[in-house]
Amino acid sequence: MPVPDYQAVMLPLMRSVADGKEHDVAELTDALASLLGLTEGERNELLPSGRQSKFDNRVGWARTYLKKAGLLESTGRGRLRITQRGLDLLATNPKELNSKSLTQFPEFVQFKAASRTGNRTQEMEEAGLSQTPEETLEASYQSLRADLAQQLLERAKTCSPRFFEKLVVDLLVAMGYGGSRRDAGEAVGRSGDGGIDGVIKEDKLGLDAVYVQAKRWEGTVGRPVVQAFAGSLEGQRARKGVIITTSQFSADAQDYTGRIEKKIVLIDGERLAELMIDHGIGVNEVESYAVKKLDLDYFGEVD
Fold this sequence. Notes:
It contains 14 helices and eight strands.
C-alpha cells in the first residue's frame, strides 16, 4: 500500500492519543506506522530530498494541522497530548478527519488564511492531491529539473563536435577529474586511438588515469561499442574508463560492464544532463530558496 497522506493520518493519530496522556512523538509515529500496516520499506521511504521519511513528514503535518485546530497541544520537546476539544470531537465518533472538517474551528481557518500556501493547498486537496508543503515544493523542483535536463540534452545533441568536447572537459573538471582545465582540454578531444578519445587524470595529482570516449550518438549504443572500448583499455593496460553519450546504452551493454574486471562507467544522455545541472555546466541559477525549520535547541529552556 502507498504511504497514507497526511489527512488520512489525522483520525488514527487522534485516536492513538485518546487516553489523554502525554505521548512521545517518535514513539507515537512508530505506533501509527504499525497501526496503519506499513511495511518496513514504506516506513523508510524518503522524500525526494532524501532528508526525511515520507511518513514522518506526513505525520508531522497532521500534527501541525491538528494543533492549529486546537485538538492537540505540545507539552514539551517532542511530546504532545489531546486537548478537551479533541476529546469532545472524538466523542462524536467522526468517520473521517481532514482539512475540510477542521474548518469548523476558527483558529484553523485563521491559520489557513494567514498561510501564503493556503489557497494552493486547498486547491490541491479539492483535487484529491493531499501533498505536504515539502512534497509540493519538491515535486515542482523535480518538474523544473526534468524540463531543464531535456533542454540541455537537446542542445548537446545539436552542438558541434568541438563544442561537445569542451562540454565534456568542463564537466569532468567540475567533477574533480582531469587536473587543470588546460590539462583536461589537451587530453580530451585528440585523435581517437582504438576508440579512446582522451586520457585524463583521476585526481589533481595524476595518481591514476581514466580513459574517455565521448560521442554524440543518436541511436542506442550497444555492447559491441563498449566491448571495443574495453579492448582498447586492455591495449593500454588501463583499468578505468568512461563512455559518455547523448543517447542511451542497451541493456546488453550495461550488463557487459558489470561482468568484466575493468571498471567502465556508462553515462547516457539523461545522466549527462543531470550531471551538468548538478555541477553547473551550461546552466545559470535563477533563484534559490532556503527551507528552514524551528530550532528546538534554541528554545530548549521552555521544555
